[in-house]
Amino acid sequence: MKKYAFLDRDGALIFEPQTDFQIDSLEKLQILPGVIEALKKILEQGYELIMVSNQNGLGTPSFPTENFEAPQDRMLEIFKENGISFSKIFVCPHFPVENCECRKPKLGLLKEFLEENEIDKGNSFMYGDRESDRQFANNLGIKFYKAETNSACSLTNFL
Predict the structure, then answer these.
(1) Residue 9, number of CB atoms within 10 A of its CB
(2) pLDDT averaged over consecutive 10-residue blocks of the chain (159 residues)?
(3) By 3-state DSSP, what share of the chain in percent is helix, strand and coil, each rounded to 5?
């Protein structure tokens, strides 16, 4: 069994614009204060990092894939430069009205991962800023740590 830190992206690890809720350019990318230090501490404690993110309409004309990939890749580069890597990254591209099975708080996005990996539910957790992140944690049967949207990372307070 492994300990996993499931992490929301927008508003919890990186700044999420409250006007359009999309990080669709390098100019919008901003890692939140304390995130790098917190992720390093989590890794030092033996957790594997899993990013789980809803990205409304990813791959549609309103949010082309390349507009997502440039800031996503740069974010991962910054993390890698700081010794941080994610074991898995899961992204739901659907709009909420599509009622897909892969959108948080549902677990469909992780179906195969959950079948292939045994989670130490007593020690694993979800860190996110939305109610859907809390519900996701409940659906997984793990702890939930609340991030304040676009605020300094509070994970070190919990660990």
Answers:
(1) 20
(2) 96 91 90 97 97 92 91 97 97 94 96 96 97 98 96 87
(3) 35, 20, 45
Catalytic residue among 10, 24, 129, 133: 10
pTM above 0.90, yes or no: yes
Return all residues near 102 (Cβ < 8 A) that are at least 6 apart. 90, 92, 94, 108, 109
Instruction: Note the residue count of the chain.
Output: 159
**Per annotation, catalytic residue among 8, 24, 129, 133:** 8
Please report the domains of the chain, with CATH numbers, ordered by start residue.
4-158 (3.40.50.1000)
Amino acid in the structure at residue 85: S
Does residue 10 carry a catalytic annotation?
yes
d(CA 48, CA 2): 8
